[in-house]
Amino acid sequence: MSSDFESYEQDFGTITAEITNKIGRIPKLSGEEKTQLVLNVDKQLEEVRELLEQMDLEVREIPVQSRAMYNSRLKSYKQEMEKLEKDFKRSRIAYSDEVRNELLGDDASSSENQLIKLREERAHLLDNTEKLERSSRRLEAGYQISVETEQVGQEILANLHSDREKIQRARERLRETDANLGKSSRILTGMLRRIIQNRILVFILGAIILLTIILAIYFNLRGH
């Protein structure tokens, strides 16, 4: 899981370095080139926001014992993002003032400036449309994940139901086995009791026979 976080960190470093470079170039440009650069920076800042969201999600999945370190790193990245947004905001304010001064101060080029403004608005509209499409794709992905999660949940419930039936059948067989064991135990006890009784009878009969023989011998000897 931390490898994903580190991959996002690399993307974050690359994109923020590009943004910093472009923000520094904005005051040095003019016209359509400056407009396109402003729009490009705005788009990249949106990508960085999405990266931070992904990093935040990854941190929540990291084991608790390692989470503090990643939270600290994520916090520093958010602070860096805030600084970039402030720098870009100052740059855009200066850029807007420059465009407004050009529109008010040069009537001869007003048509061209209006065209630039229309292009800027169109670019903003296209950028917003792209953001909506990305949000729509994220929603669709989230919906797909929820559907798959529901399917997995249903499969788990079906497996649990099947396991429950197996356990119940095993309990029934165990009860039958206990009943059979009890019956066998009673039979064996009865057989053992009869064996003991028979041995006692054999012993008694043997004693009687032996006593009879002894008495017969005794009386025989006395008769002589």
TrEMBL record:
<dbReference type="InterPro" id="IPR007705">
    <property type="entry name" value="Vesicle_trsprt_v-SNARE_N"/>
</dbReference>
<dbReference type="GO" id="GO:0006891">
    <property type="term" value="P:intra-Golgi vesicle-mediated transport"/>
</dbReference>
<dbReference type="GO" id="GO:0006896">
    <property type="term" value="P:Golgi to vacuole transport"/>
</dbReference>
<keyword id="KW-0812">Transmembrane</keyword>
<dbReference type="GO" id="GO:0048280">
    <property type="term" value="P:vesicle fusion with Golgi apparatus"/>
</dbReference>
<dbReference type="GO" id="GO:0012507">
    <property type="term" value="C:ER to Golgi transport vesicle membrane"/>
</dbReference>
<dbReference type="GO" id="GO:0000149">
    <property type="term" value="F:SNARE binding"/>
</dbReference>
<dbReference type="Pfam" id="PF05008">
    <property type="entry name" value="V-SNARE"/>
</dbReference>
<dbReference type="GO" id="GO:0005794">
    <property type="term" value="C:Golgi apparatus"/>
</dbReference>
<feature type="transmembrane region" description="Helical">
    <location>
        <begin position="200"/>
        <end position="221"/>
    </location>
</feature>
<dbReference type="InterPro" id="IPR027027">
    <property type="entry name" value="GOSR2/Membrin/Bos1"/>
</dbReference>
<dbReference type="GO" id="GO:0005789">
    <property type="term" value="C:endoplasmic reticulum membrane"/>
</dbReference>
<comment type="similarity">
    <text>Belongs to the VTI1 family.</text>
</comment>
<feature type="domain" description="T-SNARE coiled-coil homology">
    <location>
        <begin position="124"/>
        <end position="191"/>
    </location>
</feature>
<keyword id="KW-0175">Coiled coil</keyword>
<dbReference type="GO" id="GO:0031201">
    <property type="term" value="C:SNARE complex"/>
</dbReference>
<dbReference type="InterPro" id="IPR010989">
    <property type="entry name" value="SNARE"/>
</dbReference>
<dbReference type="GO" id="GO:0005484">
    <property type="term" value="F:SNAP receptor activity"/>
</dbReference>
<feature type="coiled-coil region">
    <location>
        <begin position="34"/>
        <end position="180"/>
    </location>
</feature>
<dbReference type="GO" id="GO:0006886">
    <property type="term" value="P:intracellular protein transport"/>
</dbReference>
<dbReference type="Pfam" id="PF12352">
    <property type="entry name" value="V-SNARE_C"/>
</dbReference>
<keyword id="KW-1133">Transmembrane helix</keyword>
<dbReference type="InterPro" id="IPR038407">
    <property type="entry name" value="v-SNARE_N_sf"/>
</dbReference>
<dbReference type="GO" id="GO:0016236">
    <property type="term" value="P:macroautophagy"/>
</dbReference>
<dbReference type="InterPro" id="IPR000727">
    <property type="entry name" value="T_SNARE_dom"/>
</dbReference>
<dbReference type="GO" id="GO:0031902">
    <property type="term" value="C:late endosome membrane"/>
</dbReference>
<dbReference type="GO" id="GO:0005829">
    <property type="term" value="C:cytosol"/>
</dbReference>
<dbReference type="GO" id="GO:0042147">
    <property type="term" value="P:retrograde transport, endosome to Golgi"/>
</dbReference>
<keyword id="KW-0472">Membrane</keyword>
<keyword id="KW-0813">Transport</keyword>
<protein>
    <recommendedName>
        <fullName>t-SNARE coiled-coil homology domain-containing protein</fullName>
    </recommendedName>
</protein>
<keyword id="KW-0653">Protein transport</keyword>
